[in-house]
Design a protein that fits this description.
7 strands, alpha/beta, 7-stranded mixed sheet, 16 helices
């Protein structure tokens, strides 16, 4: 199904931000960039399968086959349909699966999840102390956390050296400290105002419709991204009376987190750090079971804390996001959402940067490719690790459509 919150029935929606069909230089640049990573990806795929002789044979065959695919689309960009970066990235994942590599980054993801989980209790305590000193600062810190966590991306060449030079905590803290402000795209003030409107509704006990009843968060990477960026953001939303639908890939793609990994690994361990995660998720499971397995309609949560936390998948095995094709489960629960958060370079910049929704939407990412940053922001503004915090309120998007 199509994502129901797209404006104008989705007639104006195109997932990819940049049209590469008539830009051969840009097309060749991305083909070269992806091809440069094939050898290391093949080695990682081999490691994920135990580095046996059979795994080495399959990984070498994958490298040969995928490089051949890339040369085909270089020569004829339309050979597999409309040329787009998202299509090439999806082709890479499909090619891995064709050679029976279902999760090439599973070892790296498990290691980074473990490392990030050791840091999570201290980070949650820091945020709670900051909130007790100043409620006004909390949403700013949450945005910083999302941006700092988003540096952990094995799909970006610029980040690989960072992993080799420091620990998870070192990299996360350094990234948070070095965020350049104002952000390259900076709607943080508007987002903070909207956050405090929701907080005011919660503090005054309702009396009028809640600005946000349900938030859908499209998560990106495993490790510090989801654990140190997304989870604290989710906890804070629950704390101001907002239901959370945490949405992730159905199938693995590079080091992206999957919905199954969130259910099976991330949330159970997060619940040991802060019981709000386990209580909210258990409530979500119960409410869903009572509604025949479907996420029920959103409601306001004032007395019965915490609101529920649901986990759904996006039906995809790609590092990008195509809102023309989402599962029924996601489509149904999105009808009642008031806030959508799209996190990460693939889902909110390569795709969906210009998408208009019928609700508030936050698109947030750290740009880890200089060429992309310069094309998006201009050569003078676009820098490596430029920050994108793009927030559009529903009324603003409706006006832009008129």
């Amino acid at each position: 199904r199509q994502f129901p919150l797209l404006t104008n029935g989705g007639l104006d929606y195109t997932p990819d931000t940049f049209d590469l069909s008539n830009d051969r230089d840009e097309w060749n640049y991305w083909i070269d960039t992806i091809n440069d990573g094939v050898s290391s990806l093949a080695k990682r795929a081999c490691a994920s399968a135990g580095e046996t002789a059979e795994a080495r044979r399959r990984s070498e065959a994958f490298g040969t086959a995928f490089s051949a695919h890339l040369e085909m689309v270089r020569a004829d960009p339309c050979c597999y349909g409309r040329p787009s970066l998202s299509a090439i990235l999806e082709l890479r994942e499909e090619c891995l699966r064709e050679f029976d590599f279902t999760d090439a980054y599973q070892v790296a993801k498990a290691r980074e999840n473990d490392a990030a989980m050791t840091v999570l209790p201290g980070l949650l305590n820091e945020l709670e102390e900051a909130r007790s000193r100043s409620e006004e600062m909390l949403p700013h810190l949450l945005l910083e956390g999302l941006l700092a966590g988003n540096v952990f991306d094995w799909g970006a060449k610029a980040c690989v050296q960072l992993y080799e030079d420091g620990s998870i905590l070192d990299i996360y803290k350094a990234s948070q400290k070095n965020l350049s402000k104002p952000y390259a795209v900076d709607d943080s003030a508007a987002f903070v105002r909207a956050w405090h409107r929701q907080r005011a509704w919660m503090r005054t006990g309702g009396g009028r419709p809640a600005p946000w009843r349900r938030a859908i968060i499209f998560a990106d990477n495993a490790g510090a991204d989801v654990v140190l960026g997304v989870l604290p953001f989710c906890r804070a939303l629950l704390g101001i009376g907002v239901e959370v639908v945490l949405c992730a890939n159905r199938l693995p793609a590079i080091n992206d987190i999957t919905a199954d990994e969130i259910r099976r690994d991330i949330l159970p361990r997060a619940g040991l750090c802060a019981d709000v995660f386990s209580h909210a998720y258990e409530k979500g499971v119960r409410l869903r079971d009572e509604n025949g397995g479907r996420v029920p309609m959103a409601r306001e949560w004032l007395a019965d804390y915490p609101p529920p936390l649901y986990v759904v998948d996006n039906g995809s095995g790609s590092p990008c996001l195509d809102l023309r094709r989402v599962p029924v489960d996601l489509s149904e629960c999105a009808k009642h959402a008031d806030l959508v958060v799209i996190e990460g370079m693939g889902r909110s910049v390569h795709t969906n940067f210009d998408a208009k929704l019928k609700c508030d939407v936050l698109k947030i990412a750290l740009l880890k490719n200089l060429r992309l940053a310069q094309r998006l922001l201009g050569e003078e503004v676009g820098k490596m690790f430029s920050c994108v915090v793009k927030f559009e309120e529903r009324e603003q998007q409706q006006q832009q459509q008129q």
